[in-house]
Amino acid sequence: MPYYSFLKNKYDIGKVMDLVIDLRDKYGKIIPVEFRVWKMMYSFSPPSPPTTIKTYAMINGINTTITKPSDPISIARTERVPVYLIGPGNRVPFSQAFRCKSPLQIYSSPSGLPHEWRDQYFAKATSQFLTHQATAVDEDSLFAPLLHPTPHVDVIHLHGATNAYLAKLLDDKRKSNQIGITPPSIVYTMHDYLDELQYTNTIRNVMKFLDTSDLIKDMDTNHVYGDRMFMSSLGINRADVVTFVSRTMATAMVEGTMEFYLKELVMDHLLLKAQQGRFFGISNGLDFTTINPFMADKLVTRKLNYPAYAQQLVNESTTTHFLAGKKRVWELGINSGDFVATAKDKAKRFLVRRHLLSEAGEKRPLVLYVGRLQYNKGLEWFDQAAQLFVKHNMTFIILGQQHNYPIGKLEIIQARYPDHVYVLSTPKQHRQWSIFCRAAADFVFVPSQTESFGLVAAEGLMFGASVISTDVGGLQEFLTDRPETTMVQDSNDDVWIPAYPQPRDIRLVRDKKTKRPTVTSGETYNAYLFSTKDEMSDAIRDAMLDHKRLLASKSLREEYILRMMTSAMALGWDRHGKGPVHEYQYVYALALHQRSLLLLNRHEIEQDRVLMKQLYQTDSSI
């Protein structure tokens, strides 16, 4: 990955090697650019920072305080992974590459360095590093054992269209036998079927990074339209195996039931991969170590983290329900501190004390939008949604990153409903309020027109908030709509209105001695889905009716929150042998089995196997 400057003070990063790539100046002349590769060890569950230990001893008759650091904590090899970082180049403007103060600036580029140059630089530098890793025989010790494996790279997994050009660079090296006798397999993953397909580089920018003098011949013109090269199409064509981050949407693509922009650019390549058994839909998973309501530092520091008792209940319920598929039984705590609902109320009071919410906002249900402010996220629905939230006396917080949707339109909505709608769009506001808004939210609003996975919805569930959303794309894989609304006739008017409370398959009993509440629930819904504006009105109405019902019983509200969190925990990367991790292992095995080897290389490999077998037999006989 790129060596973003904000990583410098967060991890222990060491130098690995210096390498060189060739680029072209504005006159087309080849110039060398040096860059440095760094390495850090990333721990999946980092331990707490070491503490100092104070002891007392008599030194020269004086009681002296002795401070010494605690013993270093060793992390098992299975709990960490090496991450190599590509640094900036030694020539302007590539010396400015990857400079950003925070993760929010990753997708921006400094003045003088176009985005396409930055992406091409990273692709070529990475291909040079991977080639070195696969062929660096000179770095083996002269005294290494005979059976010591030669350097090689098995699988290279590329993510997203900005890295797709790497597939071409590496595939060209494979065909010219420059990347070892056992060249790596290439796996390419599409994360988005709209933005990625539209990602292009101009021919002029691509030519700047080519090695050969015959520039037109070195380019893959099958993916060039006009003066632009479409990178996602190129990556799909050159990769050995292609995956998409939604199984449902991958199926729809192959069956031809899904229409999307620039479909004609990729469908031939996708269908060919599917016919060859090399196109898979593998739904994403949630990483519970990055944003976790039980362990987030900002929440723990202010004693707003969710209780450990609730975490135990969620973990047990996730395993039991996954295996048995039966009704959930929740033996809730006796103390209010064991309830997530209590932590949510405390988080909401925190927002009131910090003057983000009004005093009246403490009693209202909180609806949260998190994400980029762009059209395909459904922001044109916000005007009507805000009216409905105000109608039902709900607070609406928009925690957005500015994109192609005019921020001014949202500010007009905020000005119209200053006590109900809050727009937070600056990086500082994100850092300051994001985790607290998530902790306090009762609902998350996800009106997306397109969604490959639905990370915001999944993270909302992890914080115990149900989802008011469209039923599109990858959202279909984990969102379950509420039961059909029961309607009754109003006694005063000849109109039909929703019954209150709505019937639910939930039973609450209390132990007569301990007063411990036990909730048995057959409900599985975690969302209020809609596809039209009228349906959105019904979805928000039903969400408010549920919230009103739950406020009457703390135990039933806790069951509702724990149900949301359980549905999120079921989206982990490791799902009892059926999650994305195991599916990717299958993809890697298939890619290794079907990787393309030159005939000469196949002969050499067979000779190596015979030689190693003879050496092993000779060594055993001795």
Automatic annotation (TrEMBL):
Keywords: Amyloplast, Glycosyltransferase, Plastid, Transferase. Transmembrane segments: none annotated. Residues 106-257 form the Starch synthase catalytic domain. It holds the Pfam family Glyco_transf_5. InterPro entries: Glyco_trans_1 (IPR001296), Starch_synth_cat_dom (IPR013534). Residues 361-488 form the Glycosyl transferase family domain. It comes from the Eukaryota. It is found in: Plastid, Amyloplast. GO terms for molecular function: glycosyltransferase activity. This is Uncharacterized protein. It comes from Absidia repens.
